[in-house]
Amino acid sequence: MAGTYNAGDGRSSSTEEMSDQQDHSENTLSEWRSSQQVENGIPSTSPAYLDTDDDDDDDYGPRPSELYGNFTWRIDHFSQINRSELRSNSFDVGGYKWYILIYPQGCDVCNHLSLFLCVANHDKLLPGWNHFAQFTIAVINRDPKKSKYSDTLHRFRKKEHDWGWKKFMELSKLHDGFIVEDVLTIKAQVQVIREKTDRPFRSLDGQYRRELIRVYLSNVEKICRRFNDERRSKLSRLIEDKLGWSSFCGFWLAMDPSVRRHMTREKTETILKNLVKQFFIQKEITSTLVIDSLYSGLKALEYQSRNKKGIPKLTETDAQSTPMVHIDQDMFVLADDVILLLERAALDTLPHQPLPTQDDEGSQYHTKDGKSSNKFDKDSIERDDRWLTELGWKTLELFALAHIFSRIEVAYQEAMALKRQEELILEEASERAGIELKAKRSAADKKRRGKNM
């Protein structure tokens, strides 16, 4: 559908520009948006931060900033458009060509503006192609606070080469500051994702990441908190079972120290693969930030494990408390006895995000002159980055502890099953012995009765 137009067809009279992918000035920090500006449509197909990934084994490929770009499409004489579809010129991001497709009267819906991001020349790409990208499309209002944004994460492929929103916004709202002098302005931000499956990764351009953090940080916190609460609840139930917990403690303390040492460590590769598998959900818009949080937490844990001094305090809750795990070369290792760590984890709740000051809360929007207080912006950036790192750190520690404990728990269950099997064997042997003894006594009684006759 999106590729049926020839060059020049289906386009309005418009001006378009591709912004410099590397030019992020201080003033752009004031262009942040709030979560209230995110349109709640469902995406579908149509009919402080350093932009580096400094892992030792990751010295190849483009950086996230090199896979990011934004594009502005200004559609002139919008009220005079009588076509059912319009598409922008193509633009390059991440080595791929894209364009924006709109339906001024809606796509399979009424009274809505439909908006899609499309892969250009998709029918000419090699078989099996796919482009994985996170993107934001916005319809700009004369008042930046009222601009409408929608974000999504999608793997573009042959059967889904266009993706977006049929109900991006109601047509009746376009005249409330969105059409200015008969010009509708649409902006797209596109981040091609270079994903990993073996460890947490950072995939977002710095400026785009900061914008998404401002909007979705609370969602990331909910995901991390839900995981932490579920694991803590499970451990609490285990410990509250006095008989079962006593049995486990007896099993653990009776184990040979060398075996205990072996069981309290696991390869980082194994744990990190499982971590990514659990938390990186390709259809969830927050997945890139959750994985980014875990990446930051991993880096902080690695830093602390190297016993370097002067590691910065993450939040006022003091995330420098004694760690539950540390990293020793290519292994996650429990930092204390497993019984003590499990009891601690059952009580160790995830702290809440530090509240911003009143100045911080107001720094996310444009001021009248298009400027903002950089001091407050930088303070909020640092506060949010510290909180994102702490969320990742705490979640990673608990995930590693839970993973290592799961292996110990399997060993415990196997030992209990073996013990029960041995008890059953002894019970059966005792029962057989009783039956045999009873049979012998019965035979002896018959023999005595036979002699007396």
TrEMBL record:
Coiled coil: none annotated. Residues 1-63, 351-377 are annotated as: Disordered. InterPro entries: MATH/TRAF_dom, TRAF-like, TRAF1A/B. CDD domains: MATH. Residues 366-377 have a biased composition (Basic and acidic residues). Residues 27-47 have a biased composition (Polar residues). Residues 68-190 form the MATH domain. Pfam families: MATH_2 (PF22486). GO terms for biological process: autophagosome organization; innate immune response. PANTHER family: TNF RECEPTOR-ASSOCIATED FACTOR HOMOLOG 1A. This is MATH domain-containing protein. It comes from Sorghum bicolor.
